[in-house]
Design a protein that fits this description.
- It holds the Pfam family UPF0176_N.
- By secondary structure, the chain is an alpha/beta fold.
- It folds into 3 domains: 88 residues, Alpha-Beta Plaits; 111 residues, Oxidized Rhodanese, domain 1 (3-Layer(aba) Sandwich), CATH 3.40.250.10; 61 residues, no CATH class.
- The chain is built from 9 helices and 15 strands.
- A 5-stranded mixed beta sheet has the order 4-1-3-2-5, with helices on one face.
- The two termini are 31 Å apart.
Length: 314
């Protein structure tokens, strides 16, 4: 993951700086970092989610630029995170509802024991070299994200495992013997973290030439001009922006508050779409009781909005 040093697109005064970060490193004292990190974020108007575990840190935070800088400085002052890198983008509105620092078993959950990206990992490929690799006929390109993410965007020609969670990915690999038909495996995800474990797992499974996109889709969309891009669609992000496109501009997708699936403008027009209650992706899997409960929650959110508040059940 590479820290962005380029000049960002012009932003409004009210824009928020968004920092995405992860770092795999042994942190036996990770639990002791939770309280001071939570307090620092709150003091500086920073919101988002940070995950701490024995294997490192992962998360995305947003806030005023000075606040984000203060949090990053605190993290890099810790010996384990001295070389921490991050990626930056902007949001016109605060994209998170609250600040959460959580203690976890893994900073990205694949559920396979003894996978350590600090010991073995695939070969990093810079965004500018990615097109050449995935256009090589000797390369199989694999999207390691989940089905609701791939539904709105994917690299041209990539294999979509259609997994619902990252935990399903190892079994998908084991059951697809055709992955051995070509010598090169190229893998990608949103920001790079899932590929750290995915490529480590692939190497463990006997795949020799395993590559992954450094900085993920986000770095590619920032660095590669739209007219040279092999990316098709938008990239799902885990905050209130829902999606981003080339140049890391905010996309046009809306989130279904019932099932968390990103929705296109056409899907919002469907008869099965009701804000906060249902959408074409979840209507048939929800009961009338579910929809009644979601409808009440949406009512409370609407009332809070009219009062100028933000309803935390959102």
């Amino acid at each position: 993951m590479t820290e962005i040093q380029t000049d960002p697109a012009p932003q409004t005064e009210a824009s928020f700086l968004v920092a995405a970060l992860y770092h795999f490193v042994s942190v036996p004292r990770f639990a002791a970092l939770r309280a001071p990190l939570q307090a620092l974020c709150e003091e500086n108007g920073v919101r988002g989610t940070l995950l701490l575990a024995h294997e490192g840190i992962n998360g995305t935070i947003a806030g005023p630029a000075d606040g984000i800088r203060a949090v990053l400085a605190f993290l890099r002052a810790q010996p384990e995170f001295a070389t921490l890198e991050h990626k930056e983008s902007h949001a016109a509105e605060m994209p998170f509802l609250r600040m959460k620092v959580r203690l976890k078993k893994e900073i990205v959950t694949m559920g396979v024991e003894d996978i350590d990206p600090n010991q073995v990992v695939g070969t990093y490929v810079e965004a500018r070299d990615w097109n050449a690799l995935i256009s090589d006929p000797d390369t199989i390109v694999i999207d390691t994200r989940n089905d609701y993410e791939t539904a709105i965007g994917i690299f041209r020609g990539a294999v979509d495992p259609q997994t619902r969670t990252f935990r399903e990915f190892p079994d998908w690999v084991r059951n697809h013997t055709g992955l051995h038909n070509k010598p090169k495996i190229a893998m990608y995800c949103t920001g790079g973290i899932r590929c750290e474990k995915a490529t480590a797992f692939m190497k463990e499974q006997g795949f020799d030439e395993v590559y992954h996109l450094k900085g993920g889709i986000l770095k590619y969309l920032e660095d590669v001009p739209a007219d040279e891009s092999l990316w098709e669609g938008a990239c799902f992000v885990f905050d209130e922006r829902v999606s981003v496109t080339h140049g890391l501009q905010e996309g046009e997708h809306t989130l279904c508050r019932a099932c968390r699936h990103p929705l296109t403008a056409e899907e919002i027009k469907a008869d099965t779409f009701e804000p906060g209650v249902s959408c074409p992706h979840c209507f048939d899997s929800r009961s009338d009781e579910d929809r009644a409960r979601f409808r009440q929650r949406q009512l409370q959110m609407d009332l809070a909005r009219k009062r100028g508040e933000r309803h935390l059940g959102k």
